Amino acid sequence: MAVKSNPTLSPTAQASSSPSTFATPVSTCPTPLLQTPVDLSKVTSILYPGQERGGNYKAHGGFGFDNATDNLVTVKIPLNGKITRVVRYKELGEIQYLFEFEGDCGVSFRFDHLRKLTAKFEAVVNVFPIKEDSRTDLVSPPIAVKVGEVIATEVGFLNNVFVDFGVYDMRQKNEASKDPVWASAHSQFPADSYGICWLNSLPQTDSAIVNLLPGRDGKFEKKSDYCK
After folding, report:
1. pTM for the full model?
2. CA of 220: how far to CAs of 50, 112, 152, in Å?
3. What pLDDT is recorded for position 27?
4. Which of 132, 196, 204, 218 has the maximum number of C-beta atoms within 10 A of its C-beta?
5. Domain containing residue 88
6. Residue 32, preceding bond cis, omega within 30 degrees?
7. In the chain, how many domains are there?
8. Phi, psi (rounded to 5 degrees) for 143
9. Taking the CB of residue 218, how many other CB atoms lie within 10 A of it?
10. 24 lies in a domain?
11. What is residue 24's predicted lDDT score, i.e. its pLDDT?
12. 175-200 pLDDT, tens per residue?
């Protein structure tokens, strides 16, 4: 089972260097911030960032492919940066891959529930042991990635095709964190205060498409602390 660990330093690791909490941006962010990481013609629903799912708060969102008859989904890097943390772990009897990245401009991002990786990314994660949970391992030195690189060609589980995608603007805390009650409730998970509504950071046409798609979570649907 994937765990929600203490992201004082990272969204997924109990001890890590952060999603870029202490990183100094080396470039200005592009406009739009992100290039869309998946083919939206295959996407049927959106996991919204900034909502509770499965009993835990999720700063990340994701894409659902509910009409898929297989796991074939190409996932691309949305922003220039570097791989900082990875893990391959067992969940529901299947191997899953999680990658965390520090973007060059101070915005971090992550993918989880990758199923089949391309050679470059497989080589990075395969030096680490397979785990029983999703606590990540440090990649040192970090490995550069460029926007548009293909990281994975399959995602999700058998009969459940989706990929998690989270984006964290480490240059400033988000609007949700300005509410003292919310901030107190999330004090053990500082990464929650940096998560953003990445739906609005895609190219304009793609942003319009994802905002019209239904929420994948059956309980909270499109309810989100980040997406207003």
Report:
1. 0.91
2. 11, 20, 28
3. 86
4. 196
5. 40-205
6. yes
7. 1
8. -115, 125
9. 7
10. no
11. 72
12. 999 999 999 999 999 999 999 999 99
Specify the residue for token string 């200005």: 28
Q: What is the 3-state secondary structure (H, E, C) of 174-197?
A: CCHHHCHHHHHHCCCCHHHHCECC
Three-state DSSP class for 198? helix
Which region holds residue 113: left if phi is over 0, alpha if psi is between -120 and 50, else beta?
left
Structure tokens, 196: 């953003």
Does residue 55 belong to any structural domain of this protein? yes
Is 22 part of a structural domain of the chain? no
Is cis: bond before 19, omega within 30 of 0?
no
Which pLDDT score, from 0 to 100, does residue 19 have?
60
Q: Name residue, tokens 């260097």.
A: 17
Measured distance CA(62)–CA(216) in Å, rounded: 9
Q: Which of 216, 212, 16 is nearest to 101 (CA)?
A: 16
Residue 40 DSSP one-character state: G
Residue 160 lies in a domain: yes
Handedness of CA 68, 227, 220, 155 (dihedral sign): positive
Q: Are 17 and 140 in contact (CB under 8 A)?
A: no
- Per the listing, tokens 């959106």 go with 46
Q: In the beta sheet, which residues pair with residue 46?
A: 63, 215
What mean pLDDT is predicted for residues 114-126?
99
pLDDT given at position 4: 41
Question: Contact, 137 vs 86, CB < 8 A?
Answer: yes
Average of per-residue pLDDT across 127-149:
98
Please write the tens of the pLDDT for every residue from 67-102. Answer: 999 999 999 999 999 999 999 999 999 999 999 999
Pairwise CA distance, residues 84 & 11, whole Å: 12
